[in-house]
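User: Sequence in, structure out. Go.
Assistant: Echoing your sequence, followed by the structure tokens.
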Amino acid sequence: MGSRRRRGLAGLAAVLAGVLVAGTACGGGDDDGGSADGTITLTVDTFGEFGYDQLFKQYEASHPGIKINSRKVADLDTFKPRLQQWIGTGKGAGDVVALEEGLLPTYMEQRAKFVNLFDHGGASLEQNFLPWKWQMGLSPDGKQLMALGTDIGPLGMCYRKDLFEKAGLPTERDKVTELWPTWDDFLKTGQNFQGKMPKTKFVDGPQALLRVTVLQEAGKGPGYSYFDKSNNLVFDSNPAVRNAFDTVLKFQQAGLTANMQIFTPPWQTALKRDTFATVPCPAWMLGGIEEFSGDYGKGKWDVAGIPGGAGYWGGSWLAVPKQSKHPKEAAELAKFLTSPDGQLGAFKDKNTFPSSPKLYTDAAVAEAKNAYFNEAPVGKIFGDAASQVKPVYLAPKNEDVRQNVENVLVAVAEGKIKPGDAWGRAIEEAKKAAR
């Protein structure tokens, strides 16, 4: 392991320390999750790719009295209303539920509906996590440990190496990274690409672009995006938001995106075709691309640097709703999945980059390569990116605003909103969501 790689990963904890930021389940809801032979079934609710399939098998093997029911949905926007209903009605939730970074503030306000993991040995786990990741799972008064961190989402840019070659562009990841130091350079590269490959869009969609650029701009600027740290809506007055919106609008006006949203069925299908050539990729995205692109995409994808400097997108926590009939067993499962060993297993399976600093100098992370992505040195790429992450505060209604604004950008590409009217409509939609 080279000294540069070691420095990039070993310094990660220090650099990130200040970051702020359907139906009733077998084991949750109205079912007690038990069986005649005493076996307890625990339901785990997740979205996208957490990399838990092998970990579930491992846990069941070492806990003969436990069976795990994995209830996974494709994407966050599908998961969000279901979770809201389950927690709001007090029934239907799994024994362990995933909380994405944008959802965590919302449910922290409802923390009385979740088990205090301090009551299940949580206090001894603090050193397993980056300081900011641990802190965000705590109640403001520090008395309740509501959630334990899973992964973090440092950024790269996934690209189709074969399509770049057909377009006459460089294909090696270092040369590709040099194509786009800025988002304007990325746009120019996209125009060049589509000039040669008119049947393939350059980027998957505006949603991913907006999420990435908002977090980048907010990190460079005030440290917050749609809401300030007092939870006041500042959508129309925060230059970071306007800069990000205008950047994505340029891509929509130029017809450079496929207007798709990650993990939705059309996006999944597109990965088995030549529909788009790039995807802004947090570390966890690689697992989804591999799963849905399958044999068709093997050897065709690679990972380069992200335009605009480093950034992050996503990362999650696990929590145990009080409605669980087996809170003790659920807490133990959550502790296992978020332990350093659990995070390492998830990273190996789906490239979800760990939030445990204990792993950053482990060769299994630092020297990791991803065979599906042309042996890309993902440990170094995402470790270096993570070491430069800047803090961004997310308010409880951040997700609601984000979704409304993304819909405006989609409507631009569909011809339903004129580009000149897009910013005004986005302000209107942000205000609606913030009410």
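User: And one key feature?
Assistant: The longest strand covers residues 148-160.
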